[in-house]
From TrEMBL:
InterPro entries: HAD-like_hydrolase_sf (IPR050155), HAD-like_sf (IPR036412), HAD-SF_hydro_IA (IPR006439), HAD_sf (IPR023214), PGP-like_dom2 (IPR023198), PhnX-like (IPR022468). It comes from Zhouia amylolytica AD3. One of its GO terms (molecular function) is phosphoglycolate phosphatase activity. GO terms for cellular component: cytosol. Keywords: Hydrolase. The keyword Hydrolase applies. GO terms for biological process: DNA repair. This is Phosphonatase-like hydrolase.
């Protein structure tokens, strides 16, 4: 990678850069289980991590051979209310070295963008809690509600590239904590899709998506880049 000119690094949020103790997926589990299921958090993470949250509910239910649009809609509406309650008192932080990494990359002319399976309202609430500002701490935030097709489709990365005027995906790196993050990077034809083990999926699970690198901390990314 050291011989490859990197212009942009796209980071996932929760589980990759933002440590919010899996509150979103705990809340997603609670909302689904209120409709009569008993899914574990591990099951919810395995089948829903990284996805737009309504789609995550649909996919989790499908794993139990349940294909009920009305049920998924009801669980999603309940999830949004429960998440608002959870976020009112939530303490969030970044993983160690995240802000320093962003500053280092941006000081070298490498753009830093965040993307997420959250909607814009949820993502911006996290950004506000962290005190981050676009233009000062990151270059851009794009969420699932900004595009037609969520992960693993490449729409979010394509939109980021367009807005930040990066024309060649071979100058883009994607970093995320879930299989679907890696698949997104590959579908966007990023030069590297990198998995990090701090979030939703284990090293073994991430390996199934064939990332170019797997790291245990964002601090390791500095030496790779």
């Amino acid at each position: 990678m050291k011989d490859q000119k990197i212009e942009l690094v796209v980071f996932d949020m929760a589980g990759t850069t933002v440590d919010e103790d899996n509150v979103v997926y705990k809340t997603l589990r609670k909302a689904i289980n209120k409709t009569g299921f008993d899914f574990s958090l591990e099951f919810v993470l395995e089948h829903g991590a990284g996805k737009e949250k309504k789609q995550a509910i649909i996919d989790i239910l499908a794993e139990a051979n349940v294909h009920d649009t009305a049920l998924a809609d009801s669980a999603f509406e309940d999830f949004k209310g429960l998440l608002k309650e959870a976020y009112d008192t939530l303490n969030v932080s970044t993983y160690e070295g995240t802000k320093e990494l962003f500053d280092s990359l941006r000081s070298r002319g490498i753009k830093v963008a965040l993307n997420t399976g959250y909607d814009a309202k949820t993502a911006n609430l996290l950004i506000d809690k962290l005190g981050w500002e676009t233009g000062r701490d990151i270059d851009l935030l794009i969420t699932a509600s900004d595009v037609e097709n969520g992960r693993p489709n490449a729409d979010m990365i394509t939109l980021i590239m367009d807005k930040l005027q990066v024309s060649d995906a071979h100058h883009v790196v994607k970093v995320g904590d879930s299989i679907i993050d890696i698949e997104e990077g590959k579908n966007a034809h990023c030069i590297y899709s990198i998995g990090v083990t701090t979030g939703a999926h284990t090293r073994e699970q991430l390996l199934t998506a064939n990332p170019e690198y797997i790291i245990d901390s964002l601090k390791e990314l500095e030496s790779i880049l």
